Amino acid sequence: MPGLLITFEGNEGSGKTTLIRATAEALQRDYQISTVETREPGGLLLSEKIRDLLLHYPMNPWTELFLYEAARAEHLHQVLLPALKKNQWVLCDRFTDSTLAYQGAGRGLNWDQVKELNLLATQGLTPHLSVFLDIPPQLGLKNATEKNRFEEEKVGFHQKVRQGFLKSIRQEPQRWIQLKALSDSPQNMASGLIQTLKTRFPQSFRKKRSPTSPKKRSTRE
Ligand code: TYD
């Protein structure tokens, strides 16, 4: 699979979406890298419909787990695999580690069973790199704007979720970068992240366009 899958994880209100936007912009502008920004659950019509069920209708934790995995299976085949095959870099807002953190640690479902279901839904596709934006849950909840079933959960639930992310990091430290959420402007955080990406995946970066390189002559001149 030629492209790269980079996932962004963290509690509510940790600034994932803005960091994804700033990172995609810088990758396109400075390195001519073709990016796809997407999110789970969602990213396309069917998964967005499942997202609506998940975020707004009360349900049993197992139903919740299977719906996240169903949305993921569809997203994998419709968005992730086609983009990776085209050598694009996929920046995905939440992925399998959110399921471990929310349904595993948060709802208390069996961690290893959640892991197995994740593997089935993704057919073994794992992120090349995962970025954890760490924020104290109480602060993150204040930043979260969209009122959904998860944001209405008590802070204790969100503390368990954060512990879940930290457990994923302990299990696979080499896959993760940990950043303090909202510690700098999204642009500065994105350029720091890109420096790390350059160290980890040097072969994936083309030569940076030089600002002084001669411009192509317009055919109209
Ligand atoms: P969203 O509004 O996208 O949250 P955020 O902006 O914080 O990313 O809502 C997605 C919610 O779904 C979020 O509360 C986390 C939850 N979630 C799970 O519980 N399990 C999962 O596998 C995923 C992908 C998300």
Q: Taking all residues together, what is the mean pLDDT?
A: 92
Largest sheet geometry: 5 strands, parallel
The class by helix and strand makeup works out as alpha/beta
Using the alpha-carbon principal axes, give the shape.
globular
Number of domains: 1
- Please report the first level of CATH classification, the CATH class: Alpha Beta
Number of helices: 8
CATH superfamily: P-loop containing nucleotide triphosphate hydrolases
- What is the CATH topology? Rossmann fold
- Side by side, the strands of the main sheet go 2-3-1-4-5
Q: How would you describe this structure to a colleague?
A:
There is one protein chain. With 221 residues, the protein is of the alpha/beta class. The protein has a single domain, classed as Rossmann fold. It contains 8 helices and 5 strands, in the order βαβααβααβααβα. It has a 5-stranded parallel β-sheet, sandwiched between helices. Helix 1 crosses helix 8, helix 4 runs antiparallel to helix 5 and helix 4 crosses helix 7. It is globular, with a radius of gyration of 18 Å. The C terminus is likely disordered. It binds thymidine-5'-diphosphate. The site of thymidine-5'-diphosphate has 15 residues, from helix 4.
